[in-house]
Amino acid sequence: VEKKAKKHGKKKASDAVAVHNGDEPMPIIPVLLFTYNRPKELERCLDRLLKLLPANFRLYVSQDGNDNSDVGAIIEKARKTHRTNVRHLIHVRDDSGATPEEQNNGWEPYYAISHHYGWAIGQVFKDEKQFERVILLEDDIVISNDFFSYMTATAKVMDADPTVYCVSGFNDNGKKELVSDAKQLYRSDFF
Q1: Could you tell me the pTM of the whole model?
Q2: 25 near 181, Cβ under 8 Å?
Q3: What span, in angstroms and rounded, lies between the C-alpha atoms of 154 and 166?
Q4: Are 150 and 169 in contact (CB under 8 A)?
Q5: What pLDDT does 23 receive?
Q6: Integer Cα distance of 114 and 98 in angstroms
Q7: What is the SS3 assignment for the chain?
Q8: Cα dist. 91→76, 79, 114, 172 in Å?
Q9: Closest Cα partner for 141 from 1, 33, 57, 20?
Q10: Consecutive 10-residue runs of the chain (191 residues): their mean pLDDT?
Q11: CA–CA distance, 152 with 18 (Å, rounded to integer)
Q12: pLDDT of residue 134
């Protein structure tokens, strides 16, 4: 997710890319991890993230609702184990907005997720006005060793091409048996 440069004046490509060129300080890139009620997945995801998290990335964990005390304990354990500051955001769960038909179909959780995402992204950009983008993850994602270098490299593509809205590390067709070139980057109009 990227804020539009119009709100912040002219944007240089080097402003948001997490690459150290020797002369300029590395900008801080926020990583926003969403969680609700999967403590085991969160613990696994956090451990992997914090093992690989470069110094210029800042981690936020946004919890939807406060009905799972394990989440706070897992975040505190991660802070101590990895000696890092993980910012813990707690969203008041809100599943409002569904029509009666949607309620009958059990779609309220989708509204809760939507409200949570909007609130948490707003909190990150409110926390630090200089952020130009944010990396979004969910608690069941276990990132690969090259995740942060991939995000850094593709940030350059976003900066250079205004028609690129976002970058995704997820691919439904990314299974080994379906990939002919593991280094190929594909453009899609599906999101």
Answers
A1: 0.81
A2: no
A3: 9
A4: yes
A5: 58
A6: 11
A7: CECCHHHHCCCCHHHCCCCCCCCCCCCCEEEEEEECCCHHHHHHHHHHHHHHCCCCEEEEEEEECCCCHHHHHHHHHHHHHHCCCCEEEEECCCCCCCCHHHHHCCCHHHHHHHHHHHHHHHHHHHHCCCCCECEEEECCCCCCCCHHHHHHHHHHHHHHCCCCCCCCCCCCCCCHHHCCCCCCCCCCCCC
A8: 18, 20, 12, 29
A9: 33
A10: 39 38 71 93 94 92 88 91 89 90 90 93 86 92 91 90 87 73 76 59
A11: 6
A12: 93
Contact between 79 and 94 under an 8 Å Cβ cutoff? The reply is no
So what's the pLDDT on residue 74?
93
Tokens found for residue 157: 């593509």
Tokens of 31: 């990583």
